[in-house]
Structure formats: C-alpha cells, structure tokens
Design a protein that fits this description.
The complex is a heterodimer.
Chain A lengths: L3 H4 L4 E2 L18 E7 L8 E10 L10 E4 L4 H12 L2 E2 L2 E7 L6 E6 L3 E2 L3 H9 L3 E2 L7 E9 L5 E6 L4
Parallel strand pairs in A: 6-9
Antiparallel strand pairs in A: 2-3, 3-4, 5-8, 6-7, 7-11, 10-11
Chain B lengths: L2 E3 L2 E4 L3 H12 L4 E4 L15 E3 L8 E2 H12 L8 E4 L3 E7 L6 E7 L3 E7 L1 E4 L3 E3 L2 H4 L9 E3 H11 L6 E5 L3 H12 L3 E7 L8 H8 L6 E3 L1 E7 L6 E8 L2 E2 L5 E4 L2 E4 L3 E3 L2 H5 L24 E3 L10 H19 L8 E5 L3 E5 L2 E2 L7 E5 L3 E10 L2 E11 L5 E3 L16 E6 L1
Parallel strand pairs in B: 1-9, 2-3, 2-10, 3-6, 10-22, 12-20, 13-14, 13-20, 14-15, 23-30
Antiparallel strand pairs in B: 4-5, 7-8, 8-9, 11-21, 16-17, 17-18, 17-19, 23-25, 24-26, 26-29, 27-28, 27-30
Helix pairs in contact in B: 1-2, 1-8, 4-5, 5-6
Classes of the chains: A alpha+beta, B alpha/beta.
The complex binds flavin-adenine dinucleotide and iron/sulfur cluster.
The site of flavin-adenine dinucleotide has 36 residues of chain B, from helix 1, strand 4, strand 7, helix 4 and helix 5.
Chain lengths: 164, 424
Amino acid sequence: MNSQQNSNQNNKQGNNNPDSRNPAATATENPEQTREIICIACPVGCHLQVMFRGGLAKDASPDPDTIAITGNRCPRGEIYGREEVLAPTRMVTTTIPVAGSSFARRVPVRTTGPIPVARIPDLLTQLHAMELHAPLARGQVLLTVEGSENSDNEAIQVVTSHRA
Amino acid sequence: MTEYTLDAAVIGGGAAGMSAAKALVDAGCTTALVEREQTLGGILLQCIHNGFGVHEFKEELTGPEYAERWEDMVTPLAGPRGATIFTDTTVMELIPGSDEGGFTLVCVSPGSGFFHIRTRAVVLTAGCRERNRGNIRIPGTRPAGVYTAGLAQRMVNMEGCLPGKDAVIVGSGDIGLIMARRLVWSGCRVHGVVEIQPYPSGLTRNIVQCLNDFSIPLYLSHVVSRIHGRTRLEAVDITPLEEGRPDTAKTFTQACDNLLLSVGLIPSAELAREAGAQLNPLTGGPLVDCRLMSTVPGLFAAGNGLHVHDLVDYVSAEARRAGENAAAYLSGYQPARQIRLKPGSNIRYLVPGTLDPARPQPILFRPMIVKNGAILTLSLDGKIIKEQKKNHIQPSEMMQVDPAKLDLGNLELRPDSVLEVSLS
Ligand SMILES: Cc1cc2nc3c(=O)[nH]c(=O)nc-3n(C[C@H](O)[C@H](O)[C@H](O)COP(=O)(O)OP(=O)(O)OC[C@H]3O[C@@H](n4cnc5c(N)ncnc54)[C@H](O)[C@@H]3O)c2cc1C
Ligand code: SF4
C-alpha cells in the first residue's frame, strides 16, 4: 500500500493551497505570497490568483492595498476574490429538534444572510443546543447573530425555514 | 371500496406534483394530488441548504422554504371544483382503462385503507431514487455503515441521527458534496470524496463551499476498490485510475465508519412502466412527446420522475407545462404534427422527444462535455437555423433552449423533419 501523498499529487483538487481559516493546513512559516481560489460568482469558475504584495504573515489579516487579483475573466471576479480573502462570509443552514409537531421531528433553520466564516462554529454550537416547540411558522426569528450585518446594516438573524 | 372520479390525477406531491396540480386546476380540471408522505414538498424538505428558486421566485430560498411557498399556493386550491389533496397516501398501481381510455389509481393510506381514484389523465411526478452499492459493484464485505447520500441527508436533517463519525463519500455529485459540509457542521470528520471521473460532477460553488472550505480532499479519477469491516464498516481502499485503469500499486486504505454513495439518481418510473409506457434508456424515465405525454395516451410525466434535474426551478416549469398539456389533452387538443428532436454531438439526451410547431415548448438537455465558450447549434434537416454562444457548459448542469424564439412558422417543415441540437 502506497502513501496517500503519492497517489493524489496530480488528481487531488482544490485544497492544495493552505487557507488561513485552516490552521492545520498552514504548515509553512514563510509569509504567504499567493493564494489560489475559485470564483463562484458565476458558473465559469475562474481560478483566481490572489497576490499579497510583501507577503502575508501567518494568521495576519491581509491589507486591502496589498492585494492583487489575476485570472478573473470579468470584473466580478475581482470583487469576489477581494471579499473572499478580506472578509469571507457564508450562509448557514442546519436543523433543530422540535417537540410537539404532528409531522416533524426537526425544523430547518437558516441565517437571513451570509455571516463571517469565523462566527460559524459558535453559531452552530448555539443552535445545536436549542430545542423548539411546535407550532412554529416559517420565518420565525430564533436569534440574532452577533456582529454580523447585511449590506443595509441590518443584523443577521436565524429564522425557521419551514413550519413545524 | 371508496372511489373518487376526477378529471386528472397527479402522482407525487413534490415540486413537480404541486406545480402540475396547480396548472391543471388553473385550467379548470378537477385534480387529485396524491402524496405518500404526510406533507407536500418531496425531496425539497430534506434539502435544507439555500439555492432554490432563483428563477421561480427571484430569490435564493432553502428547499423547505421553496416547498412551503408552493404548498401555500396549492392548499387554497382544495375544493370540489379544484384539487383534492391526498397526503399519507401511496399509489400502489396505475391501471390504464381498456375501453374509452382513462386510468384507475389503486391507492392506500393508513387512515382510509385501499381506495380507487378514476381519472382521464395522469401526471406522474413520483421523483427519483438513488443508485446504490449494487449499481456500482464495490467488492468487499457487507458491513453496516454504507448509505446512499440522500438517505443520510434525510437521517441527519430530518431524523437527527448521524451515519457515523468518520465518513468517506463516493461520487462528487451535489448531494454528496452538500452532505460533506453537513457532516462537518454536525461534528463528523469527512476524509475525502472519491470521484471516478477526471472532473467533479457537482457545481463549482459546492466544491468550493462544501469541500475546499474544510480542506476535504477530492480524489478525482479514483475509485473505492474495496470495503473492509465485519459487522461495522472499518475502512475502504481507494485506488487511482491511470488512463482509465486502476493502478493497484497506488491503492491506499482510509479508515472510516461510514461510506456515503452519491452515484446518481434514476427516475422512479415503475408505475409508468407497469401501465405500459415505453421508457427512454438514456434518461430512465418514460419516453415523452412534445406534450410530455408518454406512449400511453393520457399519461404525462414531469420532474425527476421524467429525467433527473439539478434545478428545482426547471422542475416546477416543466411540470407546469405537463399540467397545462394534460388539461389541453382533456379538452381534446391533439398536435397536428410533431417534428422529431434529435440529440446531436456532445448531447447526452434531450427531453421531450418531439416538438409541436404550433405550440413549441422548451427543450431540456444535458451536455457530455465541460467547456468554456461552447457553441449551441440547432439545425433543421441538416441546415443550421440558430447558433448561440454559451459561457460555460458541464454535464452536471442541465441546459434549456426555447424553440418558441425560433420563428418556426417561416421555416419549411416536412412531415419527417428533424431538429437536431448539438454542442461544440
Ligand atoms: C440532495 C439534493 C439537492 C438538491 N439541491 C438543489 C439546489 O440546491 N437547487 C435546486 O434548484 N435544486 C436542487 N435539487 C434538485 C431539485 O430539488 C429536485 O430536482 C426537485 O425538488 C425534484 O422534485 P420532484 O417533484 O420531481 O421530485 P420529489 O421531490 O422527489 O417528489 C416526488 C414525490 O412523489 C412521492 N411519491 C413517489 N412515489 C409515490 C407513489 N407511488 N404514491 C404517492 N406518492 C409518491 C414522493 O413521496 C415525493 O414526495 C436537489 C436535489 C437533491 C436530491
Ligand atoms: S471572474 Fe467573472 S467569469 Fe470568471 S467565474 Fe467569476 S464571475 Fe464568472
């Protein structure tokens, strides 16, 4: 049996670029010079090279003025790439147990907008400790995610995404 | 035995069924909507992530939200002149009538036992099922811990139980990718996604947000070559392919206690087949004409029960057409002629199989290639009538072309004309 390294050098896709969100994957002590990310603003999926002029120290937040992006086929790629390295956000969805519903054991919930990636683990812990009681309507507000706003400066909330 | 007589019946109350039923009722037909589960919505109810409804509702909804919005539109249609909604009811058999056409649906529900629904038209929207281990033939033992990804999705999202702590996923389709993130967010470890093809079969967005975000390796051109474990799954062997052949010297073993199979979906076409409908070997669903009507007159199909879709918006739209066409059939409409539609180069299949020049409806198809800047060509009897540039195509994304924009009225059509769709 061979080592994993060997067999997937050519074929393992995607995560060969250590990412600051994944300390385990950031083995190198040298400042990061470039990072490759895939633009998902449209289905073309351009591979973007994000360059950090002067290098990016481990765990440091990048300075917007030192970032240069190449590989994008259109301007949206630049916007996506900058956002993705400066302040990555994601939608969060999960389900929470519900008591007293005639048809559901769990109710699906969602954030009302993308939240900072760094806040996801805590939010999930908080949500997975909850227990709800029927009846619940779709869109019922369960909590407000601290320190996260949408572009209109409204706080992001967690709401139910189906009745129960 | 109780018997209901209505104009039409819709079998399956998922996205497709709700849309077909609404179209039928809107066209003035009394319609039975029959759903096996307690609530309408189908597979959408377990797809708790967002990304549904961009076309239908112009916003990004979760699966359950999309389902409930449709439920909110369909429930008020209930009434003696509109829809009769049977939930918790399974259609066991679909029997085409011998004499003047029509169908009998043999139904069963815990509350009412067996009963019959008699109709003159049926829209089959029974969704699809997952291919399983038998379909892909992985050698090894038969331990517990091997699940299809959709079943695992249902367990985690709706029942609240995890398939295990350490997962390996076979197949890079969207369900598998979405389950990878779901498992990590539920506290499990996902050790890799193994894909036999040299390219991922899911959407790029899901590769990025469900794998790369968590540094989950994607082993392209690899297969799971053996399953280990006596009673419980213990590990799998993963082997790379070199020019299509397993390079066994490079096999490695990955410990895991659950293996999720995301290796494709097949339309649930049993009821149609048993009713005598011919199936399309390329889609697994019934063969349909320009009206989405099968080879059994009056039996229509739409959604994943016709061919497997990746966008629910296309499902709703297709089923709306099936419902409208079924209503037109009930009022006596017959297409004067039909042009045959032919899949050309790089097209796996097209649905439907023919086109009614008087009522042209969208043609859905799946590309066989991954390409940026592809050209979509439509040719009538060998003559190019339309060319369109496509930014990006890939097999996991279904495509659609609307022949209503082709100005068919001005073209010379013969009874045996063929319209070919191809990609280059
Ligand atoms: C895991 C997953 C993720 C997806 N993600 C996305 C996404 O992000 N965005 C997007 O747009 N689309 C997505 N899709 C695709 C889309 O959601 C589906 O294609 C669509 O919902 C299918 O609808 P349907 O009505 O054809 O089938 P289903 O929803 O499967 O409905 C079929 C219904 O028929 C019922 N039924 C079957 N047989 C019988 C019978 N004999 N009697 C009575 N009832 C019966 C079943 O109970 C079921 O409710 C996803 C699909 C899956 C599986
Ligand atoms: S850079 Fe532009 S073309 Fe490329 S994936 Fe992003 S949005 Fe699409």
